[in-house]
Amino acid sequence: MSGDAFLAVEGLHAGYGDARVLHGVDLTVGRGEICAILGPNGAGKTTLLRALSGMIRVRGDVRLDGTGLARRSPDALARQGVAHVPEGRGTFMPLTVEENLRLGAFVRRGRGAVGADLDRVCAYFPVLRTRLKQVAGSLSGGEQQMLAIGRALMLRPRLLLLDEPSLGLAPLVTEELFRIVRAVNEEERTTVVVVEQNAHLALGVAQQAHVLESGRIVLSGSAERIRADEQVARSYLGYRV
Amino acid sequence: MSGRAEVTEKPVRADAPGRGRALARIAAGRRRWIVAAALLAVACSLPFQLVPFRVFQFTMVLVYAVALLGLNLLVGHAGQISLGHGAFFAVGAYGTAIMLDRWDVPHVLTLPAAAATAFALGLALGLPAMRLRGLYLALVTLAIAIFLVPLLKRFESVTGGSMGLTLGKPAPPAWTGLAEDQWLYFLALAVAVAAFLLARGLLHSRVGRALHAVRDNEAAAEVMGVRLSFYKTLAFAWSAMFAGAAGSVYTWVIGFVSPDSFAVTLSITLLAGIVVGGLGSFSGPLLGGLFVMFVPGISQDVNDAAPGVIFGLLIITVMYVAPTGLAGLAGRVARSTKKILRKE
Questions:
Q1: Tens digit of pLDDT for each residue in A142-184?
Q2: A155 to chain B: which residues are within 8 Å by CB?
Q3: ipTM higher than the 0.90 cut
Q4: CATH class, range A7-237
């Protein structure tokens, strides 16, 4: 493994009960990079993110800036600065937008800092500021996805895991989301791992990309290279060049 | 469920001036306090208007309301189920009875001791139980309730066995000039108000938010750093603590405990009470207390032979008419009257 990798995953195995999904995943993500995980349905993309945030048991080695993360509980990982925007957003529907955001900073102490972060997150997502006292269940799908990402930013994450942010959203909203993720990455140097079906969009913001199939990384490289690779496009990303 | 669906369908009110909305919120907050103050005033005048038997009944409503506050915390706010809440009520009641009977502990001190005992027991039982969920959790808590009655009968030297224990009630101090039933009522009212404020404080804290997160989406709460088993266990212990406090006041008021008062049916009636009263709402425990106190009696009056059937039918009717409980129904009625008034 290269010495300067911020996130280093080696021989990662994970699954649900008897069903094994990941069969030895190796990948590295550089500090401050956006890394896209691509691949067909059922390849194990969501499982990989769950493994990285401690939601499922894993075998293998995961290091964040040199600290071992494998086999630690989700709350320990949250304390380490790993923020996970789960599949389907995980909005707490009956709570207000502000309560949702404050829950994002649950493991952090200090009211003043959390208040400042509310402002910081609302600067990225101005629509959330107008909705702070509103019940989160009344937001539109796009707004809920913004809330989910904003909530993850409340942790001041070192590593941000995004699971299919485009799911069920209009193309314009999705583009806006990716633009904001890019802005966060540039302004805060947050390392981002994004799982995405929409390969075209993901490759547009990412520097690095990995293609996952049947629980293994079958291709890694810079985003441009993967985008340019016609063979890859045909077999894994499902679109014609 | 329908309540949540309503929320999503509500059109988003865009561009309402922020200042106006803030003022409306302050007004709404003040209105809530006015309602609470009015309710308290009515509650304080009640024992001077009613005959002693009725006063006793309303005292019991308050006792049940305290127990239901705890159950509401667990079921309504943390989203866990308990079919054994009556067991913690019994722990409080028997704890108080034993303290009074054997050591002549002053009444005031029995309440915190009973609540603390129930809390500790809730913590000890919650630690393994709260790793379970759904039906498994229901079954384990039910087992706690079933286990209790034979246990109480077994240790006869301490608990008085099947005969139970008879105890003195707290006497009203001379300066109050109150009769015994009125004094007991005010004691129960004081405990209920304190319990209500405590529950309110808990729910508005960071921990309260964690409980709501666990209820609404366990997986999302977990990745946010909320330790599921810890907060579930804590909620279980708190709910037990409220039940223990209620049980303690029960013993003060009734002056007698026996194992058969705390059979499994008590736990089930309490769960029915909070569901009918309104899960997760602040008025739910009070409405549930009224339900638990009066509905079994009404059922008896309707049909002497089968009070259980009438009780069951009433629960079904309430749930059919008001799926979010009586508290939800009251809210709906208030909203529609407001709408009608606005139209005129």
A1: 889 999 999 999 999 999 999 998 888 888 889 889 999 999 9
A2: 224-225
A3: no
A4: alpha beta
